[in-house]
Amino acid sequence: MNSQNYSYPLDPSWTTKEMEQVIAMFRAVEDAYEVGVDRRLVLECYRAFKQVVPSKAEEKQLGREFEKNSGYVLYQVVKEAQESSTKKIKMVGSK
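Structure for UPF0223 protein DTK66_02585, as requested:
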């Protein structure tokens, strides 16, 4: 589905399960820009992501690195999911 040619910012010290949780968050962000995504999925992914990355500073660093690599903004998608009352989120202004 994604025609990406960039890598996700991952910490090699994370377990496989933790990496999967972080990747799921990045994929939800990609989907929000590319095809639209259920806001509940974004919120679920974000909760799991925060279990792996509880630090706001680390979250911002990963978000910036992901945006630099992909052009997609983690913060904007999470904010939209938290504030939106619509079921599906479709971000405008992708790469």
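Residues 71 and 95 are 5 Å apart (CA to CA).
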